[in-house]
Amino acid sequence: MLAPIPGGAAQRPRWLLGSGRGVEYQRFEAPGKGFSLEYPKKEWQVVSGAGSIVVVFAQSKSEASVAIDHTLLKTALAPEEITQLFADLEVEHVKQRDSGVQGIRTALQTDTDGRRIIVIDYTRVGLKGQEQVRQYSLPFGADLFRLICNAQAASFAKHEPVFEHMAQTFRGGAPITATADEPKPAGALVGTAPAAPDASVGMDLTTAAPPQGAKVTPPKLVKQVPPQYPARALASHIEGVVTVRASIDPAGSVVGVEVVKSMPSDPDMVQAALRAVRQWKFSPALVDGVPTSVVLTVNVAFRLEGRV
After folding, report:
1. Rounded to whole angstroms, how far apart are CA atoms 293 and 249?
2. What is the residue range of 272's domain?
3. Pairing of strands 64-77, 221-223
4. Closest C-alpha among 190, 203, 199 to residue 295
5. Fewest Cβ atoms nearer than 10 Å: which of 90, 117, 129, 301?
6. Which residues touch 295 (CB under 8 Å, ≥6 apart)?
């Protein structure tokens, strides 16, 4: 049972009450992405995203980050369709995306422009310990934007006003054009964009030793779904390699996956690698022309573009 955030839908959201005071902001516009928002001029940088993550705003000391996730819905949502049921679906999406989430709380709120906004708070374990996350889900017709705000649990309150200001100033749902009073910030989309994560596949063992002298044809990867670069790792410029053991049936489908090792030990990279490998498809392994089951080792490397 999900508990509402204190002061839920019956009250104006706390983040509408003049958040982010004392911080100087600049407007960010994403050309062709249909949204804009304000982020701090100092101590925050903009990093290009990957997959559904359009862009990441990272605090310079890696204390906090805000990832902008965009999903195109099958049908446009009217304001009255943004209900608790929709909030529950967003919670399920959070559970699928993030590993080890705890203490989930939700609220359905309305801002001063009449937008219905879903706010989801939860905690998770990161590389540096307990993290607190707040997600603002902002539907604009068929465009669903998620502002995924992350900080160490001990310092979340410090960065919360910035998170609230970014959500408050978020505008979306139509192509963005620059205006005289909202200049496009210099250096937008700076930083290093990630290349598609690289994967290599090698034969590890077969489920049964083939007869001596048998002709063995190893499987070949025919469908590769690239893993999504985790937003936290992207914001912190973290690279890594996840080694996965995949069980392949005689039809070439992946029927089981397990982690062998991960360097560094990043749960988000592990989950991203496992989700991707589960969707891969191979040509059947053959022993004397007969399809057979095999187990493969798969190395999924997360590398940032421009680095070796």
Report:
1. 5
2. 198-302
3. unpaired
4. 203
5. 129
6. 204, 205, 206, 207, 245, 246, 247, 248
Sign of CA dihedral 171, 176, 181, 187: positive
Q: Where are the alpha helices (DSSP H) in 219-291?
A: 231-235, 267-278
**What is the per-residue pLDDT across 215-263, written as a single tens digit (0 to 9) for each?**
888 888 898 888 888 877 877 778 888 989 888 888 899 998 889 888 8
236/241 Cα distance (integer angstroms)? 16
Task: Based on the fold, state whether residues 44 and 104 are members of the same structural domain.
Answer: yes
Based on the fold, state whether residues 135 and 240 are members of the same structural domain. no
Number of helical H runs and strand E runs in the chain: 4, 19
| pLDDT tens figures, 57-85 | 988 888 899 999 998 888 888 888 899 99
179 domain residue, yes or no: no
Q: Collapsing DSSP states into helix, strand and coil, what is residue 188?
A: coil
Contacts of 182 (CB under 8 A, 6+ apart): 27, 29, 36
160 with 294, same domain: the answer is no
Looking only at the bridges linking them, the beta strands covering 102-110 and 3-4 are parallel
pLDDT digits (tens, 9 = 90+) for 165-205: 999 999 986 543 333 333 333 322 222 334 445 544 444 44
